[in-house]
Amino acid sequence: MGNYVQIDDPCLRKLKDELMPGGHWFFPAGLALQITKRVGLELRQSVRGRRVEEIMSSWDHNTLQFLANKIIGAYRNKAATDYTNFWPSYALYYLPSNFPKVIKLLLDLLSAGVLPRQVRLLDLGVGPGTVPLAILFFYSRLEKYVKDALEIQIDMIDAWWGHLLLANEFVDLYTGMLKVSFPVIINKLAEGCLENGRKQLASTLGKNSKYNLIFLSYVLNEYEINNMNEVKEISDLALNYLAQDGTLAILEPAAKDCAVRLAGLHWRYKSGEAGIKATAFGPCSYPWGLYPGREQSCSCWSFISEPWKKPESIAKLEGFGTPRKNEIKFSYLLLRKDEFNRYRYLQKPELYRRRGFVRLSRIRFYYGQPVNILGVVIHKCSKNGALIIDICDGTSGCHNHCHLEVGPEVTGLPRQVLSSAEHGDLVEVTNVKVLPGTRGSSFTLEVSNNTAARLHRTRQEA
Asked: Span 307-313, mean pLDDT?
């Protein structure tokens, strides 16, 4: 695994604690301050102050309302967004909220042993630089925990040249602020529209270029691209540039239709119907070795929902009417060409059968009985003292087919283990009772004090 970062478990835990102090994601204060000052200069507002809230509080009311209205309009308006005037609002609102999402995916790749030592990044739709800034921050924190020689090379694509210049400016600025000892190189800035400028982009990048990390953000949700054929062609383009040992990360909002369409993209590449073979590294995992196909489409609403320390710029704009962002929520799909899945070593259907595990597609035959189940955590929440964990094993083919429910009366080890479950974990539970579905699911799997639970994380060597 010489192409990937090597880190031991104690260092991995320390890094995670540093990236998520107190179990909350955050946006770096120093970067937030510099971005706020850059926006202030653009809008001819004061940039004096040591904190974001202090600076923004000195701006006039009309300016703050202007910034907020851009965000409100983007949520309400189905027409194409005019990005030429949008970047100040984006930099204060979307950039801080999307930043931790990139960190989360990088941490997953590191945990599984497939994070590249020398990053060759292609960011398709870079905006003002969210993805490269997050990668730069992550590697700056990673550096002290590993002996690997790190490097980051970046190619950026965006439909608006102004975004490319801003991203380049912010990456240069942040590289200097972090004082990293490894090389950070911006190779290409390519202006082009993903919808109709793919030939131009291919010419700019070069047909033989290969990247070990590609980010494609909010393409399914982008209202300018309301046709799945366009989405497929764009993801095809990305996979054509993906190295054999690389990862394509597709980030989308935590909306059910986006999650379902992500699953459809996975089947497209798993089946090879696009002429390109790729499989999901995460979050989906298929312990039974079975994959929902056209005849049984996957419709899981799989999304992450985790706490964060809300950035001051977002809190300020919320006071002017922007939608509230009280947590980090998003859906994603990680695709690889080498068929590596973080749980591939656990695809042992015969062993599961001998141990009495039941597929979710057959759970209806066990109503009222105790069963053994395994599946991937696709969502987790708490309601009225109960812990609710939606799971999927790739066989049921319908949204929220069942969920684990840990009532307040359940204490001890079952609650302790399942409380620590994270989105994407593979969960094994034995002796759970099949009951009628609640909370929108077809079946409830009732956890008791007699239930045994085990989690599998993304350590490749496990």
From this structure: 96
Q: Which domain holds residue 397?
A: 345-456
The predicted structure's pLDDT at residue 297: 58
Exposed e or buried b for every residue in 221-237, given b needs 16+ CB within 10 A? ebeebeeeebbbbbbeb
- In this structure, the answer to whether residues 352 and 204 fall within a common structural domain is no
- CATH of residue 445's domain is 2.40.50.140
Instruction: Say how far apart CA 102 and CA 336 lie, in whole Å.
Output: 17
Q: Look up residue 197 and give its two tokens.
A: 């400028």
Query: Please, which residues bridge with residue 377 across strands?
Result: 391
Q: Which two tokens stand for residue 198?
A: 């793919």
Task: Assess whether 21 and 58 both reside in one domain.
Answer: yes
Worst-scoring range by mean pLDDT, 202-216, 341-355, 394-408?
341-355
- What the block records as the tokens of 216 is 């494609």
Cα-Cα-Cα-Cα dihedral of 347, 253, 326, 419, to 10°?
-10
Q: What DSSP element (H or E) covers 158?
A: strand 151-158
Identify whether residues 311 and 353 lie together within a single domain. Answer: no
Highest-confidence range of 53-62, 250-259, 347-356, by mean pLDDT? 53-62
Q: What share of the chain is helix, strand, coil (3-state, %, to 5)?
A: 40, 25, 40
Q: How many domains does the chain have?
A: 2
Residue where a domain stops, chosen among 317, 336, 355: 336
Residue for token pair 């995670």? 16
Beta strand pairing status for 211-217 and 242-252? parallel
Using a 10 angstrom Cβ sphere, with 0-12 exposed, 13-18 middle and 19 or more buried, the burial of residue 1 is exposed
Report how far apart, in Å, the C-alpha atoms of 244 and of each of 157, 276, 279, 334, 345 are: 21, 12, 12, 14, 20
Q: Which two tokens stand for residue 389?
A: 């964990």
Q: Are residues 104 and 174 in the same domain?
A: yes
* 229 in the same domain as 375: no
Residue with tokens 């979710």: 360
**Range with the poorest average pLDDT among 77-81, 280-284, 430-434:** 77-81
Residue 332 shares a structural domain with residue 350: no
Nearest one of 82, 227, 219 to 160, comparing CA atoms = 82
CATH number at residue 165: 3.40.50.150
120's enclosing H/E stretch is: strand 118-124
Residues 362 and 423 in one domain: yes
Higher pLDDT among residues 306 and 462, named by residue: 306
- pLDDT at site 299: 63
- Is the pLDDT at 25 greater than 90? The verdict is yes
Q: With beta carbons less than 8 A apart as the criterion, state whether 237 and 197 touch.
A: no
